[in-house]
Amino acid sequence: MMPSFPVGFLLLLDVIALSLLAVALPPFAQPRRKGAVVAVAALVPLGALVTFVIAKGFHAVGVGRVAGATAWLSMTLVFLAGLFGLVGRALATLAALVKPVAKQEKPADPSRRRFLRAVPQGATALGAAVAAAGIATGQRAPQLRRVELFYPDLDPALEGFTILQFSDLHLGVSLGLDDLDAALLQAAAEKPDLVVITGDVVDDRPLFDRAIPKIAALAPPAGVFACLGNHEYLRRIGLDPAQWKRLGVTLLRDEATTIACGKGGRATLGIAGVDDPMELRSEPVQRGIAASLRRISKPASTFALLLSHRPEAFLVEGMRDYDLVLSGHTHGGQWGLFGRSLLDAVTGRAIHWGSYAKSVLVPGTTDGRTKRVQLFTTSGFGDWFPFRVACPRELPLLILRRG
Ligand SMILES: [Fe+2]
């Protein structure tokens, strides 16, 4: 069945995008021109048509992904060209206003006027280029990414221990089971010690029963564990731990377990999973995760792993009980900047893509001893909007190292 939620949202985006373009670009920038009104009036239904194609282009309904990508591209082109053009126009207007007083009495410099007129057009073209590049990257298959995480006091039995993390697959939107099969071929060759799933697995109900056994079939020695994401709640899919168990995966909803693993099974690994707080705003998300952590009894182990769909877990007090937090949800903002998520810069919170570390006081001690807690947030295996700039889809393989 075709997912219905994005249609209204995408239609709204179309209208916003077309309005932006109408304001940013001549001749639409001059509202008194009749042509502008006619052109916008013609573009809005065109946007609605694009929306319809996008909605139909979802992988789940079997419509070709080229058609879907083309539809995404046409809307993204309009949106980013309009947005960049608008910024260019604002900059050009500002530049014209800050002209030095002493020069104001001289006749206007025609080359300067031409340059200022060209700024919005250049910015619009840049926006269109970014849109095309982003949609092209958004079509690429997720790639295995090796990430080494160093701990000075790591249990020697866990040296080189590997954790494969599936997150935000969103199967049934822009990716399907064939994409999962291709990634599993890469993953099986790595022989991971442990596999974790950190939420948002499918957006199309029938795919759940087919996707989970495929991941479970990797059969890593330490097992396959999962926590829920917000899309499991949004779609009402896989909320029952028994459903996961039947398919070969242990779902942890505000609970923890301990397993013997590592070299010779000499290490004890604690794995906890927090339930998804089902909130959109940051503060309630953190409160929800903090409450989840209070409900979980800290696993007695030599290394403690926390699965939390939302990376906000790294910001709450209870994370001190763990050594590593594995998260997703953000998709890295799908826009990278110098190898980090653009969201880190925009929100001022360093949690959105990649590995982060901080030193915390060891719980239950009073002598000031500290330990390192790390967060790894993946940019995700998939997405519901296949547009990515310098932040590709990924399948992380985390490798624990002593050092
Ligand atoms: Fe999510």
Describe the protein's architecture and organization.
This protein folds into two domains: 134 residues, no CATH class; 260 residues, Purple Acid Phosphatase, chain A, domain 2 (4-Layer Sandwich). The longest helix has 33 residues. A hairpin with a 5-residue loop joins strand 6 and strand 7. The radius of gyration is 25 Å and the shape is elongated. The protein starts with a helix and ends with a strand. With 403 residues, it is an alpha/beta fold. The strands form three sheets. It has a six-stranded mixed sheet. The chain has ten helices and 14 strands. Fe (ii) ion binds next to helix 7.
Poorly predicted residue ranges? 1-5
The H-and-E topology, N to C, reads as HHHHEEHEHEHHEEEHEEEEHEEE
Instruction: Give the tally of structural domains.
Output: 2
In total, the number of strands is 14
The major pleated sheet works out as: 6 strands, mixed
What ligand molecules are bound, each kind once?
A: fe (ii) ion
Overall pLDDT metric: 85
Strand order of the largest sheet: 1-14-2-3-4-5
| CATH first level of the largest domain | Alpha Beta
SS summary, helix count: 10
Summarize the structure.
The chain contains 10 helices and 14 strands. With 403 residues, it is an alpha/beta fold. The protein has 2 domains: 5-138, no CATH class; 143-402, Purple Acid Phosphatase, chain A, domain 2.
